Amino acid sequence: MLKKVAIFFLSLACLGTRADQAAATDAALGDTATTALALGLGMAELNPLGAVSAVMMKVATMAYIKELPQTEQALQYSMVSSLWGGAAASNLCWLTGAGPACFLLGAIRGQYLWNAGQDERAFWAICESERQTHASMRCEWKKAPG
Q1: Rounded to two decimals, what is the model's pTM?
Q2: Of 28, 60, 93, 139, which residue is 20 to 30 A from 49 by alpha carbon distance?
């Protein structure tokens, strides 16, 4: 049992806290992989779309976000990262046998990921606002180290 708990918390640490394309991809892969593992172990899929449709929806969502203006992408990537990252955390929890508390854990992890992207979302909102008066302004997000 202790081994399962250790694997669970290490997996959560690997899910990341960025609000970018890589974070959304990591969250989508985490959700998909943990769903596939759970289904392989005989658990039921709760997503009404089903596993295959959910994967296709993730691919289409990522393609749509990539086509948005850069100033809008952080918000969208934050939304899907927190949704899919929370789902991956919940799935991992279910795999450890923790039961219904996993829904709460998934929601907490999703909220944590959403909060972690706040600085980047605020940066891009300010950038968009400043571009209203300075059309040629160039914005580049770089997270401070540490």
Answers
A1: 0.81
A2: 93
